[in-house]
Amino acid sequence: MVPSEFLQIAEGLNHLDPIRTYPGRAAKLVADLANATAFRVELDAGDQKRVDSTPPPPANGRAVSLPLRHGRQVLGTIHLFLPEGSDKLEGTDLRLARWGARALARGLSYSSRMNRPPLENRRRGLEVQSRLDRTPLTKREKEVVSLLVAGCSTRAIAEQTQLTVATVHTYLKRIYSKLGVHSRVELVARMVGTTGSVPPPEGDSDDDLLVDELPPDPKLPRDDLPGRRAFAN
User: Model's pTM, two decimal places?
Assistant: First the structure.
């Protein structure tokens, strides 16, 4: 994968809106990172408990399973279905899949925060406003951030502020620059009280994969063995 393709996928994983379609959109990007043919996401909470790729995963297909972990919380699992004739994921594909799963989990975590019940949203709104008051943003920029954190899409922000979609994008670029963030995910993280972004895939830990017992592969360290699982729809 060339750097430009990776950057496009990374940007897509950071693009939360529209929130309702984020799990499927982001999971497809993770599958693309790993050169998987299909995916299935199983979530522990929310309205969507399972999200399948289009077309759906093959019956009895081989899949690598990775937990969707954000901090200490495991939000679910993503199953990446391997091409026919392949029974493992390794090398660059494995590292990118792990990184993608963590980025997906982070996006899911912030998406769920943006969909909290009204009482929690009001409390969060006060916290966000308090943080905004300490930023160098203009009144209009603060309004854009508030709407974004409330879960509005770019188009919805444009409609509520009577700006064009292009102008909203321009405001977001200015906001990113002023706050030292690079994406909507980082911006939401800053506003809801956490900071940072998912690190690049070079420094992966080896405890992400849900593995079945496999014989050691001499080409891989023991802890790097990918999981292998058969699924039936």
Answer: 0.58
DSSP bridge pairs for 210: 65
Does a cis peptide bond (omega within 30 degrees of 0) precede residue 200? no
What domains appear along the chain, each with residue ranges and CATH number?
3-114+198-230 (3.30.450), 118-192 (1.10.10.10)
110-168 pLDDT, tens digit each: 777 665 544 445 556 677 778 888 889 999 999 998 888 777 778 888 999 999 989 99
User: Six-digit token pair at 7?
Assistant: 């950057």
> Could you tell me which of 33, 40, 36, 41 has the C-alpha nearest to residue 57?
40
CA 207 distance to own-chain centroid? 19
Please check whether residue 38 is in contact with residue 24, taking contact to mean a CB–CB distance below 8 angstroms: no
Dump pLDDT digits (tens) for 16-48: 666 778 899 999 999 998 999 999 999 987 666
Residues facing 229 on adjacent strands? 63
CA–CA separation, 178 and 36 (whole Å): 38
225: CB partners within 8 A, 6+ apart: 88, 209, 211, 214, 216, 217
Please state, in angstroms and rounded to a whole number, the distance separating the CA atoms of residues 22 and 1: 23
User: Is it true that the peptide bond before 18 is cis, omega within 30 degrees of 0?
Assistant: yes
